[in-house]
From TrEMBL:
Cofactor(s) this protein requires: FMN
Keywords: Flavoprotein, FMN, Oxidoreductase, tRNA processing
GO molecular function: flavin adenine dinucleotide binding; tRNA dihydrouridine synthase activity
Listed name of the protein: tRNA-dihydrouridine synthase
Amino acid sequence: NVIPQILTNNSKYFIYTMNEMKNMGYDEVNLNLGCPSGTVVAKGRGSGFLAHKDELDRFLDAIFSKTEIKLS
């Protein structure tokens, strides 16, 4: 079973991509909050997003209010 993984710290981009994945027939997407790559972390994505608690909280509030498929 393939589960698309989205790597972003932008809630609008995440919601758009999640909806595109839903339209393609996927019933689940994965938010990557674990990537340790230095270039990813330096951009505040992957595990680098975890260091920005307030921004991450706003991001999660935004995406969970629009989530129509499973999110892992």
